[in-house]
Fold:
Amino acid sequence: MPHPLVDQMRFARSELKRALDGITEADAARRFEPMNSIGWMICHVAGQERRYWLLRAQGITDVATELDEWGAYGKPASTPPLAGAWKAFDEVALAVDPFLNSLDDAKLGEFFEINGRKHGESIGTMLLRVIYHYWFHIGEATAIRQILGHTKLPEFVGDIGIEAPFRSE
Structure:
């Protein structure tokens, strides 16, 4: 059974998908500056998971490389294609899930080494950062959808009691 924090991260992933259900290609490409496009946000959170759980944790570099351009922080704004964004998102999730399934309390307390130096946050803190990052962009994307005039949007956290209820390890 995955660690409870991994369940919470997967729940955040599913909530992003729920928040963006029904979004069109055109709407996913819209920008209301200074915010990025919804397509960029999908790539951005997937890119974070790719960096943390594939590149840093395992040295895997050949999954969803388009995320280096499509959702990178600090690069010029982009409006990646929605289908491509979801494809990269799903590829990353599939590739990182075996690593996430291996996490336990002991591993969450460990630190990655990057260029021979200990990273400043434990794997557990990095996992929390990913979870909260998802929620940040879920709110931002929902606000964009409201600006676009979309209705019948999710108004609150979904079925956490069923999909990711509290449990201790």
